[in-house]
């Protein structure tokens, strides 16, 4: 039994509805996410936003790094290789991540009849304000999707998955459009 199994058992809903969980994954290379997560007031805000329908945890993974791979002698390959700490193996296996190279992110998951459902939402660590906003926005997106599912349909895993995927994709699309608009504004200001 893993730490994840322990958490799922401890927070399992007694009424057999879907038990949704979230895990904020980050490393010490993400100082703004770390600062926001360790602030009690921010954490209380995220807890209030998540509501009663899902629980959010945070996990700091060990920090990996990019290494140049030597071929022979002084020759090096152009493409660096990600060196993953052994301590992250269980975390990578549980969430089926290729590596921790693309953290920080919010992993949303629940145990359905067909196995573990998960969706990964990328977080922004470019500043403390952006870190706060991206966590808040991600938690709010999932919470609103769950709130839109009728109480009697919370036991229908397929319906919950559809609602979550639609909401998360909608949020990703809006973030993409906002980034294009910011780039356009910067280009426009260069004139």
Protein model, in words:
With 191 residues, this protein is an alpha+beta fold. The chain has six helices and six strands; from the N terminus they run αβααβββαββαα. The chain has helices spanning 3-10, 31-37, 40-50, 89-95, 128-148, 157-189, and strands spanning 20-26, 54-60, 65-67, 81-83, 105-112, 115-122. The model has no long low-confidence stretch (mean pLDDT 84).
In a few lines, what is going on in this structure?
The protein is of the alpha+beta class and 191 residues long. It has 6 helices and 6 strands; from the N terminus they run αβααβββαββαα. Strands 2-1-5-6 form a 4-stranded mixed sheet.
Structural class: alpha+beta
- CATH fold descriptor: Glutaredoxin
Secondary structure tally, helices = 6
Q: What is the H/E string?
A: HEHHEEEHEEHH
How many domains? 1
* Portion in helices: 40-55%
CATH architecture: 3-Layer(aba) Sandwich
**What is the top-level CATH class?**
Alpha Beta
Strand order of the largest sheet: 2-1-5-6
Feature tags:
four-stranded mixed beta sheet, about 190 residues, alpha+beta, Glutaredoxin, globular, about 20% strand
List the helices and strands and how they pair.
Elements: H1 3-10, E1 20-26, H2 31-37, H3 40-50, E2 54-60, E3 65-67, E4 81-83, H4 89-95, E5 105-112, E6 115-122, H5 128-148, H6 157-189
Parallel strand pairs: 1-2
Antiparallel strand pairs: 1-5, 3-4, 5-6
């Amino acid at each position: 039994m893993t730490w994840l199994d322990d958490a799922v058992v401890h927070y399992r809903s007694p009424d057999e509805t879907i038990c949704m969980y979230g895990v904020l994954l980050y490393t010490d290379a993400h100082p703004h996410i770390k600062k926001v997560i360790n602030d009690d007031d921010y954490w209380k805000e995220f807890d209030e936003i998540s509501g009663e329908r899902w629980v959010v945890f945070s996990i700091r993974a060990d920090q990996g790094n990019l290494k140049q791979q030597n071929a022979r002698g002084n020759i090096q390959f152009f493409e660096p290789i990600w060196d993953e700490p052994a301590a992250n193996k269980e975390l990578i296996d549980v969430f089926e991540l290729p590596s921790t190279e693309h953290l920080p992110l919010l992993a949303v998951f629940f145990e359905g009849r067909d196995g573990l459902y998960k969706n990964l939402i990328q977080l922004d660590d470019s500043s403390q304000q952006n870190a706060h906003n991206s966590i808040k926005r991600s938690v709010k997106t999932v919470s609103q999707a769950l709130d839109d599912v009728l109480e009697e349909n919370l036991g229908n895993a397929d319906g919950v998955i559809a609602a979550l995927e639609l909401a998360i994709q909608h949020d990703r699309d809006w973030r993409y459009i906002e980034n294009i608009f910011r780039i356009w504004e910067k280009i426009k200001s260069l004139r």
